[in-house]
Amino acid sequence: MLRYIGRRLLLIIPTLLCILVVNFVIVQAAPGGPVEQAIARLQGAGSQGIGGGGGERAGGSGSRSSRGLDPALIEEIKHHYGFDKPMHERLLLMLDNYAHLDFGTSFFRGAPVTTLIAQKIPTTLSLGLWATLITYLISIPLGIRKAVHHGTRFDVWTSTAIIVGYAMPAFLFAILLIVMFAGGSYLDWFPVQGLVSENFDQLSPLGKVGDYLWHLVLPVSALVIGGFATLTILTKNSFLNEISRQYVTTAKAKGLTEHRTLYGHVFRNAMLLVLAGIPQALIDVFFAGSLLIETIFNLDGIGRMSYDAAVSRDYPVVFGTLFLFTLFGLLIKLVGDLCYTLVDPRIDFSARTA
């Protein structure tokens, strides 16, 4: 198994390299880069100063001469953002810096990317870890019970609730929670923004924990709703498929109790399919779902920062977060594969290729 892990870890390097190169080429080819935006801001400020009316904002190189900007100033802006070098030199420089875990400095925030990520990641981790933990703690037992009581009234009404949850997007559910429980139109039980209160530092240790969890209730609930429905149905179908197999009938014929049969034999085989979905579930919660939830609840996390960086063409932050997201996703998939051995020790990784 150690050889398998080693091969998978080595494969992360070319995978990261390929993803970074492809995205670098795509992003660099997109119009409206940091140089164009800086020039547009200067031209806009000049137009307002002359005409007082906030004139036309130019974004392309074709309008620079008509605006009368000094070519030396344009070259200085290019040098400031590193665009005085050819694309291939900038790519090689970025890859060399990344090999030393140097992600550069944000164009517009004036801070190292590593510092920004370190500041934002606690919020994203809080949302993702709690949402994933709660989703699995609820969905797996519920899915097992639905499989055991398939076709009963319990199965029918829980399926109805699951369908409603699956059909409702996380952001829409977040808005509904705000309207219902955050002072929107009805109750005012929970805060609507931030991860902690303004007086967090003055609270006791127990009060800090309570305040932190109090702020997490609504955003985590919004993240759980979509994954909860999908995972519950997946668990139920996986257990239903295993319950109908011959070995279950044989185990019951030998006198094993339903509990022993379910958790001693069926669980090991049925959970393999559920475990296979863990990496994708984590990636969805951390990266796909966190952006909208962080924006709606005004949480300062990596998802929101990466979106703002993409809009403003803050390339160091864009590629720094891309590197982090990709590396995290690849490691999570490896951990998901290794979790198979916890459920079924018969899986032999030494016989597998990477």
UniProtKB/TrEMBL annotation:
CDD domains in the cross-refs: TM_PBP2
Entry keyword set: Cell inner membrane, Cell membrane, Membrane, Transmembrane, Transmembrane helix, Transport
Membrane topology designation: Multi-pass membrane protein
Biased composition (Gly residues): 47-62
Annotated stretches, region: Disordered: 47-67
Domain of life according to the entry: Bacteria
A single GO BP: transmembrane transport
PROSITE patterns: ABC_TM1
Entry keyword Cell inner membrane: yes
UniProt-recorded name of the protein: Inner membrane ABC transporter permease protein YejB
Organism: Pseudomonas eucalypticola
